[in-house]
């Protein structure tokens, strides 16, 4: 159809251009929505000298077939053919009243229908110029009817959990088709389906599937329909019914002997609400001092060992029954990390006497257990951090001492040691007593002991009778003598006399050892 209309419009344009100045002016395209009103303009521009208009005809061109819509004749009047008679009229009153002026023959479509979509030709019959015509393409749009609904007013979360369709969004009888999207915090999947209707409209349908649960209850689900740039939104809130989620509150882990006013409460989150609560003690019966009120167990009197055990609460609603369990244990005394407790005369028995006399512990169970647990955890973290820092400090000190001792350990060649005589110490470190200067040192021929200094007339070392100790100031001035191993010198009579080097040179370069010898600083720090 589009090819035929386009070809026809081209032929009409060529026909208009081929005229002798007479022109039929029309809009190339027009559009409107179903049920609305639209004007199709047609104006005849006469030539000079003018030609005579004898008749104007409106025709509908659909699938290559022409159908007359309306005809106006200056003599015979106006005729609107069926099925357009009730919805088509000429805009100008001069035309409607059969006046001779037919320059403007615009028609008005009322209550536009999808079947009105087609090409429309406005044809002028003139004398003596002949026929002149032009064409307009009319497009009819259909606003979709949007609707969103829950698949059921009550959605039940069943076990085992399975996905199910909870909501449907529809854009029906739209032209052109709509686009549907979902907006929600609920995790789910969407399905889409398009259906083309016989009148040319399209119905788009989308289902949203989720797994019903307690978390999806009261969640918002929004459908967004986009049609020709316009956004249409609708929302619903899910009503999910589920079994009770049960937990027992009241036991803080610090139920001790003679504590007063303790209780257990069965809390249940359910939709619909819980209608029945049932308490029981596992492997036994409830204590005799228990009073049950609704969902709470009240324990009358002081705490005793009879209260220990596993307590069970069954909560039932229209969907099902769920159970909550708590293990209660009784201690002799309150835990120090369970809060501040007042201790009354009747609360805690003393091993030496009947009861404590102080009143610094509360009889009521602590309410700030959670806060103090957090403080205790924070203290543990801080203590651990301080201990770690201290441990690193100790490790650093030990490492420093180890490296220091290693640095001071002799790593040189003992063949380069120098034995000290004279005062026996240098400025780097001295010995408290110093032997007197010996007269000479013998060296036996061809002996390894040649390089070892030995005093004449002794087995080794110095005679005690030869030792002469002066004052500290005199000792500091006394020179000392060393013999380098491997040193090659010529000595007369295989004897070596004492030679004295200036004190500053030896003191700056030597360090004494515990065996009475000195060693070069260069060898010390190798």
Task: Describe, in plain words, how this protein is organized in 3D.
This is Nectin cell adhesion molecule 1b. With 526 residues, this protein is an alpha+beta fold. The chain is built from six helices and 33 strands. Strands 2-11-10-5-6-7 form a six-stranded mixed β-sheet, with helices on one face. The radius of gyration is 58 Å and the shape is elongated. The model is unreliable at 1-19, 339-376 and 410-506 (pLDDT under 50).
Give the overall silhouette.
elongated
Low-pLDDT regions: 1-19, 339-376, 410-506
How many β-strands, per DSSP? 33
* Structural class based on helices, strands and sheet pairing: alpha+beta
- The whole-angstrom Rg is 58 Å
Q: Strand order of the main beta sheet, please?
A: 2-11-10-5-6-7
Mean pLDDT: 76
Major sheet characteristics: 6 strands, mixed
Ends distance: 105 Å
**Helix proportion of residues, in percent?**
10-25%
What is the strand content?
35-45%
Number of helices: 6
Features:
cell junction, alpha+beta, signal, 33 strands, elongated, 15% helix, cell membrane, disulfide bond, 6 helices, 526 residues, glycoprotein, 6-stranded mixed β-sheet
Short description:
It comes from Oryzias sinensis. This protein has 526 residues and is of the alpha+beta class.
């Amino acid at each position: 159809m589009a090819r035929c209309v386009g070809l026809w419009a081209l032929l009409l344009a060529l026909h208009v251009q081929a005229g002798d100045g007479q022109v039929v002016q029309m809009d190339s395209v027009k559009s409107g929505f179903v049920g609305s009103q639209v004007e199709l303009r047609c104006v005849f521009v006469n030539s000079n000298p003018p030609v005579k208009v004898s008749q104007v005809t409106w025709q509908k061109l659909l699938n290559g077939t022409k159908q007359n819509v309306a005809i106006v004749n200056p003599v015979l009047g106006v005729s609107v053919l069926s099925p357009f008679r009730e919805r088509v009229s000429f805009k100008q009153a001069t035309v409607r009243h059969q006046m001779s002026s037919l320059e403007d023959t615009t028609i008005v479509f009322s209550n536009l229908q999808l079947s009105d979509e087609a090409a429309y030709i406005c044809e002028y019959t003139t004398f003596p110029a002949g026929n002149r015509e032009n064409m307009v393409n009319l497009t009819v749009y259909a606003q979709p009817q949007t609707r969103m609904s829950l698949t059921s007013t009550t959605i039940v979360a069943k076990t085992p959990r399975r996905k199910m369709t909870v909501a449907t969004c529809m854009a029906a009888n739209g032209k052109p088709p709509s686009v549907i999207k979902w907006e929600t915090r609920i995790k789910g999947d969407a399905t889409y389906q398009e259906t083309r209707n016989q009148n040319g409209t399209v119905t788009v349908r989308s289902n949203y599937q989720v797994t019903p649960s307690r978390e999806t209850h009261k969640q918002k689900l929004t459908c967004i329909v986009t049609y020709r740039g316009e956004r249409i939104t609708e929302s619903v809130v899910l009503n999910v019914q589920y079994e009770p989620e049960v937990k027992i509150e009241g036991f803080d882990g610090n139920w001790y002997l003679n504590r007063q006013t303790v209780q257990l409460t069965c809390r249940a989150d359910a939709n619909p609400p819980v209608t029945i609560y049932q308490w029981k003690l596992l492997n036994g019966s409830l204590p005799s001092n228990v009073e049950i009120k609704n969902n709470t167990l009240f324990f009358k009197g002081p705490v005793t060992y009879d209260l220990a055990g596993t307590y069970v609460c069954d909560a039932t609603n229209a969907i099902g029954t769920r159970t909550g369990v708590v293990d209660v244990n009784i201690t002799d005394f309150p835990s120090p990390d369970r809060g501040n407790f007042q201790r009354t005369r009747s609360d805690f028995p003393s091993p030496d006497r009947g009861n404590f006399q102080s009143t610094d512990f509360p009889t009521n169970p602590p309410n700030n257990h959670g806060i103090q647990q957090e403080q205790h955890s924070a203290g543990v973290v801080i203590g651990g951090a301080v201990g770690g820092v201290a441990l690193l400090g100790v490790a650093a000190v030990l490492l420093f001492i180890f490296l220091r001792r290693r640095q001071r350990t002799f790593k040189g060649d003992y063949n380069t040691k120098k034995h000290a005589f004279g005062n026996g110490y240098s400025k780097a470190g001295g010995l408290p007593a110093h032997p007197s200067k010996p007269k000479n040192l013998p060296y036996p021929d061809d002996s390894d002991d040649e390089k070892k200094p030995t005093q004449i007339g002794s087995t080794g070392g110095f005679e005690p009778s030869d030792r002469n100790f002066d004052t500290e100031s005199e000792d500091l001035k006394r020179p000392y003598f060393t013999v380098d191993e491997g040193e090659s010198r010529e000595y007369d009579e295989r004897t070596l006399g004492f030679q004295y080097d200036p004190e500053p040179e030896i003191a700056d370069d030597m360090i004494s050892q515990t065996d009475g010898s000195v060693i070069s600083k260069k060898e010390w720090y190798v």
